[in-house]
Amino acid sequence: MDGVNQSTTQYRTYELIDRSGSVKVCIVPERGGMVTSFSLDGEEYLYLDEQTFYDRKTNVRGGIPILFPICGTLTNGEYIWNGHRYRLSGHGFARNLPWEVFNSGTREDGAFLTLRLESTSETEKVYPFQFELIFTYILKGKRLRIEQEYRNHSDVVMPFYAGLHPYFKIGDKRRLEFDLEASLFLDYADGQIKPYTGFLDLTNDSKAKLFLNHKKNALSFTDPVLKRKVQYEYSPVFKYPVLWTEQGKEYLCVELFMAKMDAFNTREDLVLVNPHNKVEVSFALTVAKTDEKNS
Q1: 3-state SS, residue 177
Q2: Rounded to whole angstroms, how far apart are CA atoms 18 and 232?
Q3: Counting beta carbons within 10 angstroms of the beta carbon of residue 174, is it exposed (0 to 12), middle (13 to 18) or buried (19 or more)?
Q4: Alpha-carbon gap, residue 28 to 65, rounded angstroms
Q5: How far is CA 270 from CA 38, 154, 224, 264, in A?
Q6: How distant, in Å, are the alpha carbons of 95, 105, 171, 209, 283 from that of 165?
Q7: pLDDT: is 17 or 174 the higher one?
Q8: Strands 167-169 and 66-67, bridge-based pairing
Q9: Rounded to two decimals, what is the model's pTM?
């Protein structure tokens, strides 16, 4: 049957299953609430480095990590807010904390799992706000939707800029085809803004490429070697698609950022949540098989 299953190895894993689409999505709440697997007809689309996944002291290389309250890094790893200096590691802390299972089941729009992360005295030492994050993963056919609520329980305005960091298995970096309606990107290799003509050589570069003027809330890429296509749809607040990989690794990250790196210091594109209010956004990921001649 379609629905939600549980399994346990080192971590308890929740499986969303849609048999009509021959799709299974695995989510591990205690490992940052992250998606660890997205398979179609038994073929895995996501990349996961199991050594980093099972080492709690290490950031996971793979799956779909959740980036909050920042995406990217800060200058010198710190920021100043209301006259106080705070330190935050790259991409924030949500991806390293255990999330609580809030609800699960099957409804008209698919099998779902809802997770929650709340602020603690420890998070307030580096991010001085009382927050609650509610993420609902919904699988229907070959489409995974992630509904997100960012709730501010503080008496002051809460700033943040979140993101998602999917890792995909790929066949050949030189042959990937992107549908990205942008003409400029920021190359973090040298800090320069460069023209984008539809092709990026990612084979020998381990620095992120952030697209500056993406014109719609959707993108896709095709892997003609593995004969796969991946499509994104997302809320307008995710302004910046980002491409990142590592030399010698057979994966590509197609990330979504709400703001550029270091936004807590530049104050550019910050999302501001009023006291005792919330912001709701969504992201959807659809996978498909494709023949190379039609990719």
Answers
A1: strand
A2: 19
A3: exposed
A4: 11
A5: 31, 17, 37, 7
A6: 10, 25, 19, 13, 12
A7: 17
A8: unpaired
A9: 0.94
